[in-house]
Amino acid sequence: MRFTFKAYNSSGKIVNGEIDAEDHFTALNILRADNLSIAKLESQTKKRHSLWHRDVSKHVAFFFRQLAVLVDSSTLEESLAAMKSQRDNQFLFELTIFLHDQISNGRKFHDALERYNFDRTEIFSEYVIGMVRVGEESGKLQQIFELLANFLEKDFIRREKFQSSLIYPKMLFGIALVAMGFLLTFILPTFANLFESFHAELPLPTRILLTLGNFLFDYGFLIFAAIIGLIIAFEILYRREDFRLIFDRFKLQIPILGELERQIACMYIFRALAVMLESGMPIDEATKILYKIPPNRFFQKILREFHDQILHGLAIPKFFDRQQIFPRSLVSLIHAGYQGGKLEEMFQKCGDYCELNAENLSTRMQSMIEPILILFLAGMIFTFANSIVLPLLDAMTQIGR
Question: How many domains would you assign to the chain?
Answer without folding.
Answer: 3
